[in-house]
Amino acid sequence: GQNIDQPTEMTATEGAIVQINCTYQTSGFNGLFWYQQHAGEAPTFLSYNVLDGLEEKGRFSSFLSRSKGYSYLLLKELQMKDSASYLCAVPDSNYQLIWGAGTKLIIKP
Amino acid sequence: IAGITQAPTSQILAAGRRMTLRCTQDMRHNAMYWYRQDLGLGLRLIHYSNTAGTTGKGEVPDGYSVSRANTDDFPLTLASAVPSQTSVYFCASSDRGVPGELFFGEGSRLTVL
Question: Dihedrals φ, ψ of A80, to 5°?
């Protein structure tokens, strides 16, 4: 079956760097997604990794290791507006997304 | 503004009642999805449609039905609501299915008493 694990909650300081980890188990692999969801709002797309390595997009970067079933989202120069839940998701064998429960990131001044 | 519109935003419903959550998109996306989101759980797929005229069952389809008569609309119906269907429901669309970026509606908060 498929399984995705993320930490439930993390706390970081404004201006700092935080790494949010995601481990997954899938029968096949068709990429890994990260989404951001502010409280009371809809999820919005952040990144998609299908090859190993780091992909940088402004203050946010996403890393993938297919051999380890592992990904992380790296947020730099944290701002208060980065307080949100970060969702990791992978497609199943029917190409439908299986979602982790999300990591709630709390930013403190 | 292009995007996905869900209605109602919030609803309180008596158990046993029938309820339809509406979802309309104006991006001409082929694929549409209905998810429910519950505290401590990830988004769970209820039903999906890869193109107009077709639908498929997701992870938690029981108690729900959908239709896809045209590209833009994808309503979700609860035939006889039960308290366990209390949740936040998100409709989403994608121009080419998965893998592909999903665009979400703002959600419908449903409480079944």
Answer: -60, -35
